[in-house]
Amino acid sequence: MISYLKGKVQFIGPNFVEVNVNDLGYKVFCIGSFLDKVKVNQEIELYTYQYIREDALDLYGFKTREELDLFEKLNGVTGIGPKTALGVLSLASPDEIESAIMRDDASILTKVSGIGKKTAERIVLELKSKYKGKVDLGSKSSANTEDADVIDALIGLGYGADDARTALKQVDKNVKGVDEKIKACLKSLGK
Question: What does 24-86 look like in DSSP terms, one character per residue?
Answer without folding.
Answer: EEEEEE--HHHHHH--TT-EEEEEEEEEEETTEEEEEEESSHHHHHHHHHHHTSTT--HHHHH
